């Protein structure tokens, strides 16, 4: 909105500027102490805010009291906030103390700010330094409000026609969102069909140790613990048959841990064993273990040693080991590596 200033207001503004110090100085001196009050402007819109800067220049060490102001500066000018008092050393034994006041007014017209007094003691005399009076013009740029008309209701929302062009900026994000949904759905379907977990896909599993390596390591542990020598015969045979059953399950791929001794022996008759004496040795170990665990049978020391030795023998005779490469395959691998190195060079 445009502001209209008649000549009368212009003259008032000129007078305000003269009083505020734009034409006349706004510094009041009381010997060695001087006080000034400066407005950001002599014109303010109603309800607006501006700064009133108070400055005091005095000798160092002199105790000067600032004006005790409340929430109003005058009857129609209010103090919104007061900044902390700050000091600056000027040199030659003088210091400048300043404070910024934020003021506002809700009454239009020309308002006068009276002098502000700073009290101090100089020797045995009580003195005070005062700022010059200020003038502030507060204007109302808005249309006059007629209280008799009362409050006006809110206008209804405008019904604007819909346009597809409004969706174009968001179309690419819609496409990306749908593509992301398709990728997530495809990934979930892949997990369900492959029966793999996310950990198995992104974190490769450590290669599983061969069955005979695990079995021989566990047999060495059982041997070193000397269980049957200390009277733990049942524990000895329980651990021994568990190692043997786990080896058979991993080596021949049938649920030996869940089967009885008779079922294991019937299953092993269909396996191609390296020697004809392996199946009898396996039967001896399993039957002796069943008697010790379930019939309270006390095997002799030689029988315990035989059971452990037969298990060692069975694992060593049936273990699967990777075959060493033949000299011809080693030469082919070496030649292939040399070709790859030449291609890299």
What are the SSEs and their pairings?
Elements: H1 7-20, E1 27-30, E2 33-39, E3 43-45, E4 49-59, E5 64-65, E6 78-82, E7 86-91, E8 94-104, E9 109-113, E10 117-122, E11 125-130, E12 134-139, H2 168-194, H3 198-202, H4 211-225, H5 233-252, H6 261-268, H7 278-294, H8 301-318, H9 327-344
Parallel strand pairs: 3-12
Antiparallel strand pairs: 1-2, 2-4, 4-8, 5-10, 6-8, 7-8, 9-12, 10-11
Helix pairs in contact: 4-5, 4-8, 5-7, 5-8, 7-8
Write a brief caption for the model:
It is built from nine helices and twelve strands.
What does this structure look like?
With 345 residues, this protein is of the alpha+beta class. The chain contains nine helices and twelve strands. Strands 1, 2, 4, 6, 7 and 8 form a six-stranded antiparallel β-sheet that branches. A three-stranded mixed β-sheet has the order 3-12-9, with helices on one face. A three-stranded antiparallel β-sheet has the order 5-10-11, with no helix packed on it. Strand 1 (27-30) and strand 2 form a beta hairpin. Helix 4 (211-225) runs antiparallel to helix 8 (301-318) and helix 7 (278-294) packs across helix 8. The longest helix is centred in the middle third of the chain and has 27 residues, at 168-194. The protein starts with 6 loop residues before the first helix and ends with a helix. Residues 1-5, 18-30 and 340-345 have low confidence and may be disordered.
């Amino acid at each position: 909105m445009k502001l209209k200033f008649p000549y009368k207001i212009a003259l008032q503004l000129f007078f305000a500027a003269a009083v505020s110090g734009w034409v006349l100085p706004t510094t009041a001196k009381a010997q060695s102490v001087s006080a000034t009050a400066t407005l950001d402007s002599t014109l303010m819109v109603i309800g607006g805010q501006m700064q009133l800067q108070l400055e005091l220049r005095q000798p160092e060490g002199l105790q000067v009291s600032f004006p005790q102001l409340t929430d109003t500066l005058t009857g129609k000018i209010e103090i919104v906030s007061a900044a902390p008092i700050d000091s600056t050393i000027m040199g030659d034994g003088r210091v400048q103390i300043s404070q910024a006041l934020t003021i506002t007014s809700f009454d239009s017209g020309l308002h006068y700010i009276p002098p502000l007094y700073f009290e101090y003691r100089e020797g045995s005399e009580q003195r005070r330094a005062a700022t010059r009076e200020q003038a502030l013009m507060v204007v109302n740029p808005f249309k006059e409000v007629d209280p008799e008309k009362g409050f006006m209701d809110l206008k209804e929302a405008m019904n604007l026609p819909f346009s597809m062009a409004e969706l174009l900026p968001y179309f690419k994000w819609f496409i990306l969102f749908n593509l992301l949904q398709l990728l997530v759905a495809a990934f979930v379907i892949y997990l369900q069909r492959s029966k793999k977990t996310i950990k198995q896909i992104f974190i490769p599993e450590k290669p599983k140790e061969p069955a005979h390596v695990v079995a021989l390591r566990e047999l060495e542990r059982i041997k070193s613990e000397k269980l049957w020598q200390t009277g733990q015969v049942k524990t000895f045979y329980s651990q021994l048959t568990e190692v043997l059953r786990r080896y058979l399950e991993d080596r021949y791929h049938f649920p030996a841990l869940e089967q009885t001794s008779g079922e294991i022996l019937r299953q092993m008759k269909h396996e191609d064993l390296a020697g004809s004496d392996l199946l009898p040795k396996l039967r001896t170990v399993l039957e002796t273990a069943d008697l010790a665990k379930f019939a309270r049978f006390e095997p002799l020391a030689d029988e315990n040693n035989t059971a452990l030795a037969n298990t060692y023998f069975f694992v060593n005779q049936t273990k699967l080991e990777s075959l060493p490469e033949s000299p011809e395959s080693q030469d082919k691998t070496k030649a292939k590596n040399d070709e790859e190195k030449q291609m890299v060079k």
